[in-house]
Amino acid sequence: MKFINVVGARPNFMKIAPLQRIFNKSSKFIEYKLVHTGQHYDYNMSDSFFRDLGIRKPDYNLGCGSGLHGEQTGRIMIEFEKVLLHEKPKIVIVAGDVNSTLACSLVAVKLGIKVAHIEAGCRSFDRTMPEEINRLLTDAVSDYLFAIDQISACNLKREGISEKKIYIVGDIMIDSLLFALKKIKARDDVLKRYHLKKKQYGVITMHRPSNVDNSDTLIQILNIFDEIQKEIPLVFPVHPRTLKQIKTNSEMKLLLNNMKNMIATEPLGYFEFVQLFTNAKFVLTDSGSLQQETTFLNIPCLTMRYNTERPVTITKGTNTLVGNSEYKILKYFNQIMNNRYKQAERIPLWDGQTAARIVKILLAKDKK
C-alpha cells in the first residue's frame, strides 16, 4: 500500500513525523513517499525540524516558496499533480490547515486518489482566517477524517459529513511532543544560552496576520510586551513574517531594542523550542499547536486571538483567549504571576498513540 505524506509548513512536520516512525516499522506492508511543498523554506522553520524529528529527507521538494494565497496554492497544485501522476499512491495524507494541505487535497481527489486529513473538524468559525477556509474545503473532499476530539467530530457531522468517514484518534501533536521530551530529557542548553531559570520567564510566539500585518496593532502588542518584560524576562523567537514587519518600521525596532528584559531570537529548532516552552512559567501566543502542547503539560497559555479551533484547550486546558487587548493580557498575566490559573484536565486519547491508531485504521480499511 503506497502513501504520500505532505508537509509544507512548520506544524506539518510534527504531525507527519509520528506517522513516518510507524511506517518504518511496517515497511513490509507500506510504501511511502514524502513530499515537501516548500511553503516554509527558512532553515530553522523547516530543515532543522527534519533533523530533530528524525524525518527522512523528502523524496520530492516542490520548492514552491511564499506568495499570495492564490499564487502559492496554484504553484503547489501544478507541481504536486506531476508527483501523483508519477507515483500513483493509494492515499495522500495531509495535516493541519495550511495552503499545502488544501492544494494537495484538491489535486489528489480530482485524480481519484483518496485523502486522509489529520486534525479534521477543527473550527474557529471565523471565515476571515485563511486557515478556516483551508480546513472546511479539505474536510469536504477528504475520505478519512481524523479528529483530535469529540468536538471536532461533531463539527464534521453538522456539516453533513458521513460518520463512516470520521475517526476520533486524539492529537498527533502530543505524539511528537512526547518523542521530543524523551530525546531532550534533562537538557538545559537553551536555558543556559539565554541565562534563564526554570519557571522564571515567559515565551512569546506571534505570526498571525491579524496581529502582525497592521503596524498600529503590532506596535500596540509590542507595548504590552514591554509592560510584561518589566516584571519577568521574555523570550521571543521571532517568526519571519513578524520580523519582516518590524524591520520596516523604525518605531517598532526602537521599541523592541529598548526592552532590556526581552530576548528576541531567530526561530528555534523543535527540540530547542520544546526545551524553552516546557520550562516557561507561561506562554503568550497566537499559534494553534502551542494551545494543545501547553494544555497537555499544564502550562498557562494566553492566546492572542478572539477565537480558537481548539476549544477543548479552553474548556479542559490551560488556554485563555485574550485577543490583543491590553486589559485582558495584563489581567491574566497578573493572575499567572500570582499563581492563580486554571489547571488542565486529562483529554481522552491525547496519549502519544494517535499515529498508531491512524495507521491501523488506514490498513484495516484497505483490506476491506
Describe the protein's architecture and organization:
- There is one protein chain.
- With 368 residues, the protein is an alpha/beta fold.
- The chain is globular.
- The chain is built from 17 helices and 13 strands.
In short:
The protein is of the alpha/beta class. The chain has helices at residues 10-25, 47-53, 69-87, 99-110, 130-141, 150-158, 172-184, 189-193, 209-212, 215-229, 240-247, 250-257, 270-278, 289-297, 312-315, 326-337, 354-367, and strands at residues 2-7, 31-36, 60-61, 91-95, 114-118, 144-147, 166-168, 202-205, 234-237, 262-265, 282-285, 301-303, 319-321. The strands form two sheets. It has a seven-stranded parallel beta sheet with strand order 3-2-1-4-5-6-7, with helices on both faces.
